[in-house]
């Protein structure tokens, strides 16, 4: 099987889930690099050049709020989910679960007993 | 390379220089901290500090790309949303404008100057070329501006929703119009008549362009080839499309006519001494000559155009039948 082909499809599948992963993780305030590491540790590797502009975009859309923390020697911009962001997260999560269930049903996973 | 600024300085500056005053400094500050965090993590993992900075910056990639993502600007001139409209316009506009420009320029020049036809045609051709380049350029610029000025959320959407009534009224291979046929047939027969009249000698009142002293065989052959062209147009209309056989006949008659005319031209037997004839008739200067290469070029161009369009239409008809 062509590796590039698989990588392309995987990337396509993951693309939309980055937002979901960010909103989920940012219920706790985090700065950019820490978020990157948290996501990577959770097995959700995102490139910095994708993640950092995305955080700005979500902030501009009102889904995230940000605050500079200058207590430490290195000032950092902390992001967290806004009330709007939380409601978007709810909807995205519902969609994610229903997609998972729908795909599972299509796959016949119920019949094989794989899905609980 | 010796430089006073660090790699981080230069990278951050390149990313943020085109961002507005409202976001630029903030992005710069955050990016500095992020790069520093990445460098620290690498150094903690045992990487040499100088190498660590280079690695951290390389991982962020091309600063221009990153700047585009921060700025929300598209990384293309014309995206998939407006591309179909761009293609449509780029097909329609040149097809209307270029022939008009050519005819208008050529007729205006013929009416106002007495340069020879070859150089006038060349001039008109060059004008059409520059009009074409301008047309393509400005249409593209306009679409790029539209693309860049659209809100980010609309970017992949078409400018206006597509509707079924935008489809062509008839599939092309069923499209042999009566008007088109009449024009082609009348033109071919008129040409045959004109050539026959020229070859039989035009008398006192006409202008003798073709050589009336040509051997009768060639006269008949040329007239017949033009007549066949007219008959072919009618045949195509009767059949309803260009069949491979009709296209082959068309290619053969065009090639035949072109070769015959070129051969006669090379032997100086096709045309009369035009400067002489026109000079006697209208009292014009006889100090010019018909350029044989230019005449040859037009003979080949017209014949090739006619032959190629017939083949193209026949191919389209075959493909069309397959999709029907």
Query: Averaged pLDDT of chain B, please?
Result: 85
Uncertain regions spanning at least 5 consecutive residues of chain B: none
Pairing-aware structural class of the strands and helices of chain A?
A: alpha+beta
Main structural class of chain B: mainly alpha
Helix content of chain B: 55-70%
Please write the string of helix (H) and strand (E) elements of chain A: HHEHHEEHH
Q: In the residues of chain B, how many domains can be counted?
A: 3
SSE layout and pairing:
The complex is a heterodimer of chains A (116) and B (324).
Chain A: H1 3-15, H2 17-25, E1 30-31, H3 32-41, H4 48-60, E2 64-69, E3 76-81, H5 83-107, H6 109-112
Antiparallel strand pairs in A: 1-3, 2-3
Chain B: H1 7-16, H2 24-44, H3 49-60, H4 63-71, H5 83-112, H6 117-149, H7 178-199, H8 216-239, H9 244-266, H10 274-282, H11 292-323
Structure report:
The complex is a heterodimer of chains A (116) and B (324). Chain A has one domain: Arc Repressor Mutant, subunit A, CATH 1.10.10.10. In chain A, 64% of the residues lie in helices and 12% in strands. Chain A is built from six helices and three strands. Chain A has helices at residues 3-15, 17-25, 32-41, 48-60, 83-107, 109-112, and strands at 30-31, 64-69, 76-81. Chain A has a three-stranded antiparallel sheet. Chain A is globular, with a radius of gyration of 17 Å. Chain A starts with a helix and ends with a helix. In chain A, 18% of the residues are buried. Chain B has three domains: 7-71, no CATH class; 83-166, no CATH class; 172-323, no CATH class. Helix content of chain B is 69%, strand content 0%. Chain B has helices spanning 7-16, 24-44, 49-60, 63-71, 83-112, 117-149, 178-199, 216-239, 244-266, 274-282, 292-323. Chain B is elongated and about 100 Å long.
């Amino acid at each position: 099987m062509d590796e590039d082909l698989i990588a392309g499809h995987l990337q396509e599948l993951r693309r939309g889930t980055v937002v979901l992963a960010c909103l989920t993780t940012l219920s706790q305030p985090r700065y950019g690099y820490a978020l990157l590491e948290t996501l990577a540790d959770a097995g959700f590797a995102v490139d910095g050049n994708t993640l950092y502009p995305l955080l700005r975009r979500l902030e501009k859309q009102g889904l995230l709020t940000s605050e500079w923390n200058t207590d430490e020697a290195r000032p950092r911009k902390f992001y967290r989910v806004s009330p709007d962001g939380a409601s978007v997260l709810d909807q995205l999560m519902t969609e994610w679960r229903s997609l998972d269930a729908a795909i599972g049903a299509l796959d016949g996973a119920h019949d094989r007993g794989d899905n609980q | 390379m010796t430089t006073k600024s660090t790699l981080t300085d230069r990278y951050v500056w390149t990313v943020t220089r085109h961002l507005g005053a409202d976001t630029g400094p903030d992005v710069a500050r955050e990016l500095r901290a992020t790069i520093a965090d990445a460098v620290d993590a690498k150094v903690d993992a045992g990487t040499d500090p100088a190498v660590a900075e280079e690695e951290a910056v390389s991982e962020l990639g091309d600063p221009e790309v990153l700047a585009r993502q921060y700025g929300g600007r598209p990384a293309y001139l014309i995206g998939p949303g407006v591309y179909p409209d761009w293609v449509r316009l780029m097909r329609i506009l040149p097809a209307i404008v270029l022939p008009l420009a050519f005819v208008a320029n050529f007729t205006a020049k013929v009416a106002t100057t007495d340069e020879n036809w070859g150089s006038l045609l060349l001039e008109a051709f060059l004008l059409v070329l520059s009009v074409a380049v301008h047309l393509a350029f400005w249409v593209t610029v306009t679409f790029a501006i539209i693309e860049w000025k659209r809100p980010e959320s609309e970017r992949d959407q078409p400018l206006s929703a597509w509707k079924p009534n935008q489809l062509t009224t008839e599939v092309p291979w069923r499209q042999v119009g009566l008007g088109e046929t009449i024009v082609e047939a009348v033109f071919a027969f008129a040409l045959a008549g004109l050539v026959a009249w020229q070859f039989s000698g035009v008398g006192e009142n006409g202008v003798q362009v073709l050589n009336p002293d040509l051997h009768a065989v060639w006269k008949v052959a040329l007239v017949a080839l033009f007549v066949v062209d007219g008959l072919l147009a009618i045949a195509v209309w009767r059949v309803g499309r260009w069949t491979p056989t009709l296209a082959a006949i068309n290619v053969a008659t065009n090639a035949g006519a072109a070769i015959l005319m070129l051969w006669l031209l090379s032997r100086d037997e096709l045309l009369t001494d035009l400067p002489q004839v026109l000079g006697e008739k209208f009292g014009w200067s006889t100090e010019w000559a018909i350029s044989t290469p230019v005449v040859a070029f037009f003979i080949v161009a017209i014949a090739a155009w006619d032959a190629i369009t017939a083949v193209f239409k026949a191919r389209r008809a075959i493909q069309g039948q397959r999709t029907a």
